[in-house]
Amino acid sequence: MTTMTLAKALNAGLRKAMEADDKVVIMGEDVGTLGGVFRITDGLQKDFGDARVIDTPLAESGIVGTAVGLAMRGYRPVVEIQFDGFVYPAYDQIVCQVAKLHFRSLGRVRIPMVIRIPFGGGIGAVEHHSESPEAQFVHTPGLKVVACSNPADGYAMIQQAIHADDPVVFLEPKRLYHSAKADVDESAPAAPLWQSRVVRPGSDATLVAYGPTVSTCLDAATVAAEEGRSLEVIDLRTLSPLDLVPVHESVRRTGRLVVVHEAHVTLGLGAEIAARVTEECFHSLEAPVLRVGGFDTPYPPARIEEAFLPDLDRVLDAVDRTFGF
Amino acid sequence: MTTMTLAKALNAGLRKAMEADDKVVIMGEDVGTLGGVFRITDGLQKDFGDARVIDTPLAESGIVGTAVGLAMRGYRPVVEIQFDGFVYPAYDQIVCQVAKLHFRSLGRVRIPMVIRIPFGGGIGAVEHHSESPEAQFVHTPGLKVVACSNPADGYAMIQQAIHADDPVVFLEPKRLYHSAKADVDESAPAAPLWQSRVVRPGSDATLVAYGPTVSTCLDAATVAAEEGRSLEVIDLRTLSPLDLVPVHESVRRTGRLVVVHEAHVTLGLGAEIAARVTEECFHSLEAPVLRVGGFDTPYPPARIEEAFLPDLDRVLDAVDRTFGF
Amino acid sequence: MTDPVFGPAPERVPDPELVQLLTPEGERVHHPGFDVDFTADELCGFYRDMVLVRRLDIEATALQRHGELGLWAQLLGQEAAQIGAGRALAPQDFVFPTYREHGVAWCRGVDPVRLLALFRGVDQGSWDPAEHNFGLYTIVIGAQTLHATGYAMGVQRDGLVGTGEPERDTAVVAHFGDGASSQGDVNEAFVFAASFNAPVVFFCQNNQWAISEPFERQSRIPLYRRAHGFGFPGIRVDGNDVLATYAVTKAALQRAREGQGPILIEAYTYRMGAHTTTDDPTRYRLSDDVEHWKLKDPIARLEVYLRRNGLADDAFLADVAAQADALGERMRRECHALPDPSPHDLWDLVHAEKTAELAAQQAEYDAHAASFEEVSS
Amino acid sequence: MTDPVFGPAPERVPDPELVQLLTPEGERVHHPGFDVDFTADELCGFYRDMVLVRRLDIEATALQRHGELGLWAQLLGQEAAQIGAGRALAPQDFVFPTYREHGVAWCRGVDPVRLLALFRGVDQGSWDPAEHNFGLYTIVIGAQTLHATGYAMGVQRDGLVGTGEPERDTAVVAHFGDGASSQGDVNEAFVFAASFNAPVVFFCQNNQWAISEPFERQSRIPLYRRAHGFGFPGIRVDGNDVLATYAVTKAALQRAREGQGPILIEAYTYRMGAHTTTDDPTRYRLSDDVEHWKLKDPIARLEVYLRRNGLADDAFLADVAAQADALGERMRRECHALPDPSPHDLWDLVHAEKTAELAAQQAEYDAHAASFEEVSS
Ligand SMILES: Cc1ncc(C[n+]2csc(CCOP(=O)(O)OP(=O)(O)O)c2C)c(N)n1
Ligand SMILES: Cc1ncc(C[n+]2csc(CCOP(=O)(O)OP(=O)(O)O)c2C)c(N)n1
Ligand SMILES: [Mg+2]
Ligand SMILES: [Mg+2]
């Protein structure tokens, strides 16, 4: 059991995966000597050499495209996209190649690639550094998409994602990299990667979140509890496939659901969850599923990002509204 | 009043827009001498010259990126993406530049660009030629997204989109290009671009569709009528902004809604419509909003695309299911 | 025009000769860099290959006309470029094709019927890339050049470059077209290959056209010179000359295997047919042009050479023609017999590990399909 | 090593001299292609500009350290490249910057406080591109090079190339870095610019680093030669020499305005500071390197030259220093005074024509905000 930040937990997880399988290679901009702009790959090039931790030319399509070739040659590339907003030059390779090669080849070609993306806002950054692009990947068949929300999950999930034989978009809540510290039990058996998890039980309404908004929801539940309202909080963890079993179970008890994410509300994950849960739990719902997310505007300048991001007040406000139907 | 195919109607609309404003330029692969692989720009280079109808090098990011520059210089570029599946190399320019420049510049920079995309399946094509990428653009603030479903709309909407001061992703149901013939009244006043439209009134359940699935839904309504069930069909026309006013009005009467599109169900437009309509019409709904769409698999080989695409049976089946709740 | 300040524009540098070993008239010429001797067997083999892949192409085109294929991308005119490139490979080399490399597929032992299946819409490529060391056809222009570069980086990591053992040293070929040279991905592949000195041979078939756009829209200088801007060699070869294409590719592959890094070959050729069976080239090019290139036919010139030098007699030529007939007959037969895929299987193919979500969608589909069978029975 | 078959690897061609007009020691040298005379006013102007933008940079860096800015991208060491490029412009020319062209912004009359606002997180660029003929900062690496090329195609369509009227003929500048040269977009910009012969000057500040990656990761040959692969000229200039940068840029712009098409300038310089204020360059580079480049300081060499030739006296230098102090003081003052934006306005900025959808979201936000004001009041 060690106390560590999310950044350190991911670093430790990557190291573990590299030790376990020498086909694991890390690729990206500045991942070598510098250890990445967030230091997630700190020290790995020193210990595993520059054939396994590769500083690439500055071209995201090139990074993902060459990673496809490495995967076809039997490697397990772990690609770092420096910031969420810079994944788009690689979008074509991800959507048309990474996602489709298994299908296209009738299952003969596997692309066990992990695409790590530091995502979300709240760090006071300039444009393109605070995006939440997950919905677009979840809409793309062939990709799997997960998001960690705490150091213990970060440590376990990155290893599981690397171990998986399918391409995984791995979302890391960048604003928690160096803030969230927690105990990581490196020898504990990890929960399956493809399961969501109830992180706080409750009975009056359900909150669903992932990545950076899990802690927002936990805070909201604490405040709500003081006001006598019991909120259940579910950390989705896996966005594709979606594991809504615990959500359905919860909503059947609470009758009320609010989904919280930083991505734009329109066609964000909340839309899909609302549609599925309404279909599955139609007669249990006391109110429509409500969504709290980033507004349908581009991510704003840092001085007003707090207004853009879902916060405790907007979450509690939505919970209130579910009681108004 | 002239009877024409959708392809001819779009061609006529483009010609009209070019005559009306000499800042309108057309760009793309093979749009010049060849008139585009679907002949939508047929004859335009001959009549307007190669400074206004530009055969570009084979690079979609280059096409959209240079169109941004032309827009900044006061032009109104109409970009043709040859097939839906080839829009992804331009995705970065569309999402990070086209969509955001107005916002980023505090409204000083306008990008009155139209990105024409022949979309959808049903033409027996090879991979990447039958995609429905609309959800990803609807999720992107700053873009407007419309889809035409018939020649009269094609003729009017393309002109309106070119006239609009914002970037518009213009989706054309390629499988209807040369099949759907209809009367186009070139002098009739056009309906506003940003409005959806009830194309068949009904009272028992509501179908919402756009582009290629409008005719599927109209066929379904015809069959249902024979079986004594009255379906209202709404052609969305505008996907971003969404105009759900007629949908809400309809659902308040029918209590049942099925959304039909070719895009993958998960996080397709149906998800957003389900979420919004459920929130707006919670107490009117007799059943959850159901969705009929492409499966969550990559688009399949042509010999089985019919199974993948929403058809009359799947639509009617979903309607039946809304009566089962 | 020489710019007084910036010096000669680079396109004014005299173009080094196209590498050619067999003239359009069937005359064997020599090139100092590629002083190769060919055995009669090799020459006859090239001839047979070219005749057979031309037949393959004609047959597939006919099948499309008869509605058996949804589409066909013709290689007519590019036989020498493809057979030269394909036959130069060592077994361990790996090839990343576009959608038109039927001749290379042939050399790699991919059954032509597998190509038909793809264009018929039965599947999206059903050969095993690992079995043939031949990747799947790639339709998104240029994407495969990055895959090739990454694969070559994998070969480096496997320690299979520069060992000096001919059985082990491995090179990778990235095929692409003149149009593709404009794509960002192709240029990024050049950057990565140069940066990592990857053992990849970029093989561009400049067939003068990207659908309706002439080569000049993509580049104002010969394409092989693009490589110079990235710091590796480029060379232009007569792509209608199978001997030259073979010799140049072989040398380039050897160079890559030895660890000397990437190289760009521009095989200068001509797309004699339409872009694909849906295309109508009369809309954008002169038949004069096509006639001009007919005189450079890759098969005719080798036939003249073989005959003139007594390397092939009537019996040999008749035998090749018979093989072509047999191939055509088999293709027709087996194409008709290709079974349609089952929609049921769709969900099995999405991932290596199927998800519960997709299994549920599959079950739903099956139930729906079953209900229809009930109704119709 | 010369390859016996493919000829000399292109990187072996002797590198033509870097264009330089002022040595690091402050000696004026001559270059046959750029035989330019400068007036005392021009030279003093360059000096003043460089001193002021260095102060601008230092001041902004300090503001970041004090928490007033979220980030700052330093130009330290690149003053000559930027002032040379900026002062060579004609008023009608249009510039597409990256995020580091503070010196060019200065030349284009953009108030430095506007740059602070962006890095403070108040906005994402609040100057009017059309007013200054200076586009917004672009953070996505390379994207702006395509915008520049398209803009230049617009200039062509406006008939403002090769008219011979110096007031009308227009060129466009695309700034980018050495790292950016690897991006697909930049190479596609080269393709488009060459294909359409667009009046665009690609101006690459090769400051040797892309964050922590040395230039060698991006290219194994000097970058100006990339242009040759696309069929247009490239030239390398001493980017720490304001005279040379000015002269080369001026000639390149003129060439573009005359209709001779694109050109690539590689301004060879060095990023003396960190990549941005969040970066720690000690993790990846030697201080020796930095020391070495200090000897090539762009301001010091011009100061030596001015003094030695009696072109600048103490009074002038003191005046420039005073101007720098005043600038610094104003930046501090006005930075503190920058008002925060209002979230309410977000929805007004998304489109030229606001949608009902966004108006509704805006109203909802306003109601929510008002309810909080009620609660807290
Ligand atoms: C990214 C992308 N854009 C557009 C297309 C449509 N398309 C298919 S082939 C082709 C022309 C390709 O020309 P070239 O690279 O010269 O190859 P060739 O067909 O001549 O063999 C185009 C534009 C595509 N397949 N992929
Ligand atoms: C598409 C994209 N990928 C990654 C980044 C992150 N990033 C910002 S600056 C930079 C290095 C740029 O290097 P260079 O082009 O040499 O310009 P310099 O910063 O040296 O001026 C990187 C990788 C980005 N902004 N955009
Ligand atoms: Mg071609
Ligand atoms: Mg740099």
Word description of this protein:
- By secondary structure, chain A is an alpha/beta fold.
- Chain A folds into two domains: 2-184, 3-Layer(aba) Sandwich (Rossmann fold), CATH 3.40.50; 197-322, Rossmann fold (3-Layer(aba) Sandwich), CATH 3.40.50.920.
- Chain A has twelve helices and 14 strands.
- Chain A has helices at 6-20, 44-48, 60-72, 91-98, 101-104, 134-138, 151-163, 213-226, 245-254, 269-280, 305-308, 312-322, and strands spanning 2-5, 24-28, 53-55, 76-80, 114-119, 144-147, 168-173, 181-184, 197-200, 205-209, 231-235, 238-240, 257-264, 290-294.
- In chain A, the strands form three sheets. A seven-stranded mixed sheet of chain A has the order 3-2-4-5-7-6-12, sandwiched between helices.
- In chain A, α1 runs parallel beside α7 (151-163), α3 (60-72) packs parallel to α4 and α8 crosses α12.
- The termini of chain A are far apart.
- With 377 residues, chain C is α/β, with parallel strands linked by helices.
- Chain C has two domains: 40-336, 3-Layer(aba) Sandwich (Rossmann fold); 343-376.
- Chain C has 13 helices and nine strands.
- Chain C has helices spanning 40-65, 79-87, 102-107, 112-120, 129-132, 143-157, 184-196, 242-257, 287-294, 298-308, 314-337, 346-349, 356-376; strands at 2-3, 7-8, 94-96, 172-177, 200-206, 209-210, 213-214, 234-238, 263-268.
- In chain C, the strands form three sheets. Chain C has a five-stranded parallel sheet, with helices on both faces. A two-stranded antiparallel ribbon of chain C has the order 1-2. A two-stranded antiparallel ribbon of chain C has the order 6-7.
- In chain C, a hairpin with a 3-residue loop joins β1 (2-3) and β2.
- The longest helix of chain C is centred in the N-terminal third of the chain and has 26 residues, at 40-65.
- Chain C is globular, with a radius of gyration of 22 Å.
- The model of chain C is unreliable at 8-15 (pLDDT under 50).
- Classes of the chains: A alpha/beta (325), C alpha/beta (377).
- Chains A and B meet through α4, α6 and α10 of A and α4, α6 and α10 of B.
- Residues 177-179, 207, 209-210 of chain C line the site of one magnesium ion.
